[in-house]
Each structure stands twice: as structure tokens, then as C-alpha cells.
Amino acid sequence: MGEVWARCIRAAAILCTALIAVVGGTGCVHVYQPMSGLHGPVVVDIQAPNFEDLNLTVHCVPGDQLNRLETSTLCRKVGSLFENQGAKVHTIDTSAPVKDVFKDVFAEETEVDPDEPPPPLTDLTLELRTREVRETDDPISWFAYISTGTLLPAITEYTHTIDVVVRDGSGFLLARDTIEGRIVRRMGLGVWAGNKLLDVAWRDDADKVTGEDVANAELSADLYGQLSQLTFNAKMQWTVLQESTPATAEEVP
Amino acid sequence: MQIFVLFVLTLMATVKPDPAPGLFRTKTASAELDCEQLTVARANQERPGQIGEARPRGDYVDRRVVVCSERLISHGVRPVRDEAILSTLDARADEVASAAAALGPDLQSRTWLVETYYPSVQVASKVSFAAKNSLMEHGLTVSDRTPILGFGDLDVITRMPAEQAYPAACKRYYATGSLGEQDALLAVVSRDPRETILHAGLCSRGQWKWLR
Fold first, then answer.
1. Range of the domain at B46
2. What is the dihedral of CA A38, A43, A47, A49, to 10 degrees?
3. B111–chain A Cβ distance below 8 A for any pair
4. Which residues of B touch A32 (CB under 8 A)?
5. What is the pTM of this model?
């Protein structure tokens, strides 16, 4: 009878270990690390009306990194970000220059006077180009992951870059920045269980790393903050430069 | 069992420290690092001797280097707006001075005065000091003198909208003799509490012009 119990306990232990290994082995911990441009100070409140009555064109250029659908999604999300701040947003997700796109859109509405330079069709244009700097699997970590039964993590990391350019309606460059973020994916029982334990027992809410889409949410929050700040700075630059034009200079008493 | 533990410990020793948050580094600690990702070649140029050279026939694996330095002043010590201005003060001062120095030969021979309009006096004095240094680096003559306006002028000008106030102040500086024929005033201005850039304006012989 005792031997049967011992066998049952051993079988249960093996089953539990296998179960934990499967859950932990497939358990990933994604962490986000802001690199250049993403952890700069942000003063603007992205929920406040910072861009009231501003005509803003968000131009997302498709490339190797994002296909047309992903580009469209990015544009839509960034467009919503600025709409929530009071801007009148027009999004473009083709690689054609903004002026050409507007020419098609407004061709029937705008009467062109050959003697006069055409008026700008937008106040500001925000151009976004995404690039993947690096995506790597660390082969040594994969060897460690397999040979230790997922106790040590397999590490994969992705580094993405977004080139951001803000121009005024005539194409004059107002601001530019390159934003870089790194996502590290650690997979395995040891890293998953260890982080889960620390999250439950020790870490503050702000320091927790496990949970659904924590890394992506943090990346989005930083990205939206930086885009808003850069565009607001560009808007102020645009306002100041407009005050220097001869027409407004004459009005000054 | 002992062999397995030894094996795991040996493998653990091969794991390189990562600046990203993880088991041994919190997000807060990770945010105190300024990191950039470099190729091995560039990392060797910037930090010679610290990173192994690439082999002549190439490495067996794709190696990249994440170079980090700890922030001098932690997040939250200074107000966010001040932090944004002061953390990149050298570059900002140089931009402002470059814009002034590029104005033409007529202004090169003037004596340059610098005035900073920023809510915090401590930050304003640092910005002024940095701008004066940058102007001198561009070969311009700089004075420590500060132009002064009378109380009546200040009372009127401070009630004007910004787009009128700066040109009006410039005219008054010239009319009252606070700024002479051979003086040029470089005004470094923060126009909105939500912006993290500095604008620059020039006041010369009563004429105001925004430079950036």
C-alpha cells in the first residue's frame, strides 16, 4: 500500500514539474527599455487641448518594417492621439509625397491661380518612418534554455526606430528626432516564475513586468508622449516664425 | 544532481548583464540609465579596450553593444521643464548662438547682450551664461550688461500679448538708450510652459526679429 502511495506521489510530482515546465517554458516576460529619444522629459499633457484648430497631416511611410495595414493602424492611432488634443487630423499612409496626395484629394475643390503661389493645404505635417534596427536570438541563451529544462531564459530582442520629422505646410523643416526602443523577450520557467513571484510579493505597481501587454503599453505611452512634445515644440516654432514674416511685422505697433 | 547544479551555475556565469529591467534590475533603476545600441566597430571607437575587437574574418554570432551611462541627476529631482532645458543646455545654447552668428558681417562687430525670459531665475541665469559662452566661442564680443526698462514701460509691456511685447520692449530699449547703436540684444525665450525648446530673438537698433 505504501509503495503504491509512493508511486502516486512520484507520478504527481513528475506531472506537476512537467506542467510547470510547459507553462513556464512557454511563459514569456517582455520588458521594454527606452533608448534614445524615448525617455526625454515630456511636459505636455496628452489629454489636454494642445493643438486646437491646427490642421495636422500625419504621414506614415510604409517600408520594410511595416506593411500597408500596419502603417494604416499606426497612422490611425497617432491621428487619434492628436484629434484628442484638438487638432484637425488628416492621415496619409502611402509613400507618395504629401503634396502629391493633397493634389489628388483637393484637385476639384481648389482653384489654382497661376500667378499666386498655392496656399499651404495643412499647417503642419508629421512624418513617421519606422525601421527595425535589430532582431536577434541569442544562441547561447537558447542552448542554456533547452539544456536546463527552461530554468535559464532564452533571450530574443527587438530594437525599433522611428524617424519623426515635422514640417510646416510649405515643407519647411521645424523639428526632427529619432526615437528608439528596445523590447527584450525572456522565455523560460526560471525567469517567468521568478518575475511573477517578485511582482506578487515585492515590486511596486510601476515596476511590475509580468502581465498582459505591459511592455507594449509602456512603449506606446512613451511614444505618444514624445510625439506630442515634439509636435508641440514644432507648433511653437512655426508660430514664432510666422510672427517674423513681413506681413505680421508691419502690424506690430 | 550536483553536476546539473554546477552546469546551471556555469551557464549562468556566461549570461551578460543587461540594462533592461529584469530579475535583478527594476524599471526605476533601468530608467536611470541613458543607453544606446552600437555596432562593435563603433563601440570600440568610442570606448577603446572595453569591448573585444571583431575577428578579422567576422564573428560567429551577430554582436551588438548596448552602451549605458548613469544619469547625473535622477528623474524627479528637477521640474520636468527645467530638466528638459538643462539636460541639453550646451546644444541649445549653441543653436541659439549659431543663429545669431550667422546674421551677417554688420552684426559681427556689435557688442552682444543676452537676456533670458524663463520663469525660473536659476535656470534663466544658467541659460544666459551658456548662451554668452557660445557667442564668445563664435568669436562675438559679449557684455555682461543687462538692458533695463522703466517701471512704466514694464507695466505696459507685461500686459501685451507675446507677439507684441517683445518688439515693443525692443523699441523701448533703443528709445531709452538702454541699447545703443553698437549693441545687439540676443533674447532667449521660452514662450509657453508646455514647450521644451528655447526661441531666440534679436533686438538691434529698435528692430525686433525672431531668429528661431
1. 2-70
2. -120
3. no
4. 20-21
5. 0.81
